[in-house]
Design brief:
Blueprint: H1 12-25, H2 46-58, H3 83-88, E1 91-101, E2 108-118, E3 124-132, E4 138-147, E5 153-160, E6 163-171, E7 177-187, E8 197-212, E9 217-223, E10 229-237, E11 243-250, E12 256-263, E13 269-275, E14 284-290, E15 296-303, E16 306-315, E17 322-329, E18 335-344, E19 349-351
Antiparallel strand pairs: 1-2, 1-18, 2-3, 3-4, 4-5, 5-6, 6-7, 7-8, 8-9, 9-10, 10-11, 11-12, 12-13, 13-14, 14-15, 15-16, 16-17, 17-18, 18-19
Length: about 350
């Protein structure tokens, strides 16, 4: 598999020079100055999950070696790290620092950073990212995650320009979300990155139900606060229990959307195709490439078959810790480079370099 961007394909030395340049000007540090397609679906599909588990155990270490969970949208607002990998390696913090490079320009640091914090069970508990707002002033987005004793995600709390808001989830006995409540939250702390709930205002509650429709599909219904169905989703699975399609329709307005999943010979997600509005022909697709240990190497993003973005992931050859992410806009060749550093529960802290790749 290719381990570099398409426009570097004819000259790998260009990428090596870029990486060395990054190492000279980038220094990773934590934001604290004090020093997140195979679904967890209904128990009605237990037989399929057992079959999937058997195939999983017979495969070559799927899920054991990867730091990124290939079944989650990576670097999104959902928890997307491999919980087992994080726990087994005692990772406490991951911090990232971003730089960028335009065509015929030097690499420039952005002063923008990423921060991921984990509990001792390996679950993501907080992520922060700094950015420049409309007046070029640095600000921070914060997401905090809360779990119950069953390791179910019960609350996602996010910051915005007005303070904090949160979504709270309740589950049934089959681990399906049956209730979601949206709240506005007042923070008792003056420092934005610290949160202590002072007061909470319940704004809206949605509920959900699930219906089996054949051996390989089920339907999810969305209810508003008046207990009226406003949306329905249909989930279709292949004979191995892998999700192959989600079809969604709003009752009022009849807006329809669809997501399709394709898998490679090892059962890994190979392609995801998004149809945001079926009344148009627009679509966005993502193609996934892996190494022999199932680590995600690249995501290629297409819009209506036009190649738009390439996201490359670089790993340390000895530890398989993610060392960098390279994001290239294909049309402009503009590149963003994010380097990662790790802090462990043992107190050790390591700054990984890319010279070994």
């Amino acid at each position: 598999m290719l381990f570099y961007f398409g426009f570097f394909a004819k000259n790998k030395s260009i990428l090596n020079k870029i990486i060395k340049g990054v190492l000279k000007i980038n220094h990773l540090f934590p934001l604290y100055k004090e020093g997140q397609g195979v679904c967890n679906f209904n128990m009605l599909f237990l037989e399929l999950r057992i079959i999937g588990l058997m195939l999983f155990l017979l495969s070559s270490q799927v899920g054991l070696s990867q730091i990124l969970d290939i079944n989650k949208p990576v670097f999104s607002e959902e928890p997307f790290f491999n919980t087992r990998f994080i726990q087994q390696n005692g990772i406490k913090l991951i911090t990232g620092s971003r730089s960028s490079k335009k065509v015929k320009d030097i690499i420039r640091t952005k002063g923008l950073d990423y921060y991921y914090e984990f509990n001792e069970r390996g679950f993501l508990t907080k992520q922060m990212s700094t950015y420049h707002n409309q007046v070029e002033k640095k600000d921070t987005n914060i997401i905090i995650y809360y779990y119950n004793e069953k390791n179910q995600l019960t609350t996602i709390r996010k910051s915005d320009s007005y303070g904090y808001f949160s979504n709270h989830f309740k589950y049934d006995d089959s681990n399906q979300v049956i209730n979601q409540t949206y709240c506005r939250d007042e923070n008792y702390c003056d420092y934005k990155a610290d949160f202590d709930l002072a007061k909470q205002y319940t704004i809206n509650t949605d509920s959900f139900s699930y219906e089996k429709q054949g051996e390989l599909q089920y339907k999810k219904l969305y209810y508003n606060k008046y207990n009226k169905v406003y949306r329905e989703e249909f989930f279709y699975f292949n004979e191995l229990g892998n999700l192959r399609e989600i079809y969604s329709r709003y009752i009022i307005g009849n807006k329809k959307s669809k997501v399709q999943y394709e898998y490679d010979e090892k059962g890994r997600v190979g392609k995801i195709i998004h149809f945001a509005n079926l009344s148009t022909n627009d679509q966005e697709s993502e193609v996934f490439l892996y190494d022999e240990l199932d680590n995600l190497l690249e995501i290629k993003v297409y819009q209506n078959d036009k190649y738009k973005t390439s996201k490359q992931f670089l790993y340390d050859k000895k530890t398989y810790l993610l060392t960098a992410q390279l994001i290239q806009d294909i049309e402009t060749e503009f590149i963003q480079i994010i380097q990662y550093q790790y802090t462990f529960y043992t107190g050790d802290r390591t700054s990984l370099t890319l010279d070994k790749h």
